[in-house]
Design a protein that fits this description.
Helices cover 28% and strands 34% of the residues. It has helices at 13-17, 35-38, 98-105, 145-153, 162-176, 181-194, and strands at 28-32, 46-63, 74-94, 111-120, 123-131, 156-157, 160-161. A hairpin with a 2-residue loop joins strand 6 (156-157) and strand 7 (160-161). Bound molecules: benzoic acid.
């Protein structure tokens, strides 16, 4: 008998609904590393600065539904596995029902994965994070930071300009005191293109 393993197509909403059983669970930590850091349009119980280990943020995922279109996808953040790396972001403790909204908002190739959140001072908790990997249909993959900036400059979608997404993310990371050479380099390239 063959067992079908769902792969990540463009719309991952239905697959994500089957990935975690929240029965009897009151709240779940969600790690945000992209627009979830600054676009908090969902209810949460508490939020805290957090890091996750062995993952790096990259603007390698295509966006057909927020910062681009099917004809010209924008570039948005995903995570790539990198031993020793530390990715800073914002952790939200949410009710399980909140995932119905976030699964839909972040449906373009992202799958929920379990991750350990590090709050500093030795405090850790298990949580979930959305990751779009190279097997998903919207994946764009690596390019130089200058090329990514040029691509971003030419993209926009229903949620606005792709350049605003990157600059907002860079600002939010600066506010968190987080270092992210990749995002900051793309933001610098964008500022050069805008002047
Ligand atoms: C985030 O901000 O963590 C996020 C980014 C893309 C998809 C889902 C979540």
């Amino acid at each position: 008998m063959t067992i079908a393993v769902p792969t990540a197509g463009h719309d991952t909403t239905d697959v994500n609904r089957t990935r975690h059983d929240f029965t009897g669970v009151e709240s779940v930590w969600l790690f945000g590393y992209g627009s979830l850091i600054y676009k908090t349009d969902f209810p949460f119980i508490e939020r805290r600065f957090a890091t996750i280990h062995d993952w790096s943020r990259r603007l390698w995922q295509g966006s057909h539904d927020h910062r681009g279109t099917h004809e010209h996808p924008g570039r948005v953040a995903t995570l790539i596995a990198e031993p020793g790396a530390v990715c800073a972001g914002m952790a939200y403790r949410v009710a399980p029902a909140t995932f119905e909204y976030i699964d839909f908002r972040e449906k373009n190739g992202y799958l929920r994965h379990a991750v350990t959140l590090d709050f500093g001072n030795g405090e850790r908790a298990e949580g979930l994070v959305y990751i779009a990997d190279a097997s998903n249909a919207a994946w764009l993959g690596p390019a130089s930071e200058a090329d990514i900036a040029r691509h971003v400059m030419g993209s926009s979608g229903p949620s606005g300009r792709n350049s605003d997404y990157v600059l907002n993310l860079a600002d939010a990371l600066h506010e968190l005191g987080a270092d992210d050479p990749h995002v900051f380099a793309v933001a610098d390239e964008l500022r050069k293109l805008k002047t």
